[in-house]
Amino acid sequence: MKESFAKPNLVDGHAHLNEIEDVNGAIERARAKGVSHIIAVGMDIESNRRTLELAAEYPGIVYPAIGYHPWSIQTDGIDATLAFVDRHLERCIALGEVGLDYKVKLKKPIQWEVFAQMLNLAHRHRKPVIVHARYSHQRCHRMVADAGMDKAVFHWFSGPHEVLDRIVEDGYWVSCTPALAYSPAHQAAIKKAPLSRILIETDCPVPYGGKASEPAHLLDTLAHLSRLKNLPVEKVARATTANAREFFRI
Prior knowledge:
Elements: E1 10-15, H1 23-32, E2 35-41, H2 45-57, E3 62-66, H3 78-88, E4 94-101, H4 108-125, E5 129-134, H5 137-146, E6 152-154, H6 161-169, E7 173-176, H7 184-192, E8 198-200, E9 207-208, E10 211-212, H8 218-229, H9 233-248
Helix pairs in contact: 3-4, 8-9
């Protein structure tokens, strides 16, 4: 990246900050690289609570999104988690991470019911939704659209092109991660998606190339997206930052 573009004021649209041990150090390194805003996402009551705490500790830098990830769903904890999200969602910039994952063993009808209730909360609180859709892209899109959501981003999108077309037609977004470096499905989807519908993220601390990520690695996502689109880094940075500001209203 050129020195004149050292601080582009990027937005990491999806970070599990509660899973990072040295949060302060990670935020300092991110800001030094030009990452000015971080959307911290939750997966269950514990991570949601920590996400809210981090947003309070780093106002204007960390913005909270709380949710109920399909990996975290326990049948005896659904009501309590829904109630927690309902109580605290008004303080958040988005609902997430929520969605469906057909690779986990949790029965699909339970996932559908939880996701539907989460979408209802998002609609009632007028919050955008951060959607996890693994092997469930078509169903996730249909549920989001049927719920009447104004704004949704399909996180780390690697799904079928026909679903991507419907996502774009409905005015929703997709996001990309440093996995653009090696994932053919992710590359193909993001190459097809219009730049105006793309957000960038790290999904940290997910490891890429065997190394745990952090928000500073958003510049890797940016660089991979720039190469994939054959566009200058500066243009891609400006576009994706504008997209994130529109989506999250920051």
